[in-house]
Amino acid sequence: MSETKAIATRTTRTAQHTLLRFLARRAVTSVILLFGIVLVTFSLTVIVPGDPVRAALGEGAASNPATVEAFREKYGLDQPVWIRFFIYVGNLLRGDLGTSLKSGQPVSADLAKAVPATAEIAFYAIIISLAVAIVLGTLAAYRRGKVTDQVVRVVTLIGLSIPTFWMAILTYQLFFMQLHWVSGSGRISPTITPPPRITGFYTIDYLLNGDSVGFLDAIGHLALPVLVLSLFTIATLTRFVRTSVLEVLDMDYARAARAKGLSGGRVVVGYVLRGAALPILTLVGIAFGSLLSGTVLVEAVFAWPGLGTYAYNASKNLDLLAVTGVGLVVGVFYLVINLVVDVLYGVLDPRVRLS
Question: How confident is the model at residue 122 (pLDDT cuts 50, 70, 90)?
Fold first, then answer.
């Protein structure tokens, strides 16, 4: 008996050490990728055509050589590129993303306002999309070739075909302008006071402060952006879930579970979805990253003060430090999401730890 316990203890320790080595490898890779993100985002701002000084000062002030020289010296634009890069990296290590040329505010302060706004709609969109996609995709796969499967496939095809910006305009005109079912643009109504900042998510912050009026107003403003982003994401995830579930349904252990007389629901929940979880997890990570970084058009339609709007304004005004900050944040988004997905892979599937 003691020998059996000793073997079990050694097996557990080996599994733990394997998982720790796996996590360490992923952490080292993430640090290397982070440096690459910094290098690429900084390099892109260097090769961007146009004069950031003229864009920031305007034609009148830019015609004065003394003003231009003072501006370039203040923001370090008179230094060689390689010196500017090392200065930028040094500032990053201190948490300083620089100062926006246009707003005159620290880029980190601007991003602290923009990122939570985008993260809020992306978070709710991915939660709703995943829940709906799992139900529809699993149902379509379990009833493949039947009417239910055909309807789901047609609906998802329509969802993938409709441009997101056109859907945003259509829903805004219909549900707000015509029917008045939801609130208008922005995160909250002009008559509502923003909540004390805790998480940056207005809905959560209103709840934590016990403000039901503000919470309902924030939900009303969230409804349309989340709906538009969810429609496309649901279509993408549903088709992928259907494919993944179909592959697992044809595997031997799923057939054996059905042959044992288990109900269809128990086979799907207990065996099929667990087997299909890993590939679905990968696509969910990619979809969430896309929602966090690709909401420019939706934010423009709904006047949402998020990362997409900030990135567009920074690019339009050639605000190099702001553009670099946005690029860095988006890169870190994908890096963190990929790291979380890799860790979940290692936890769910021991075979991944050995690869």
Answer: very high
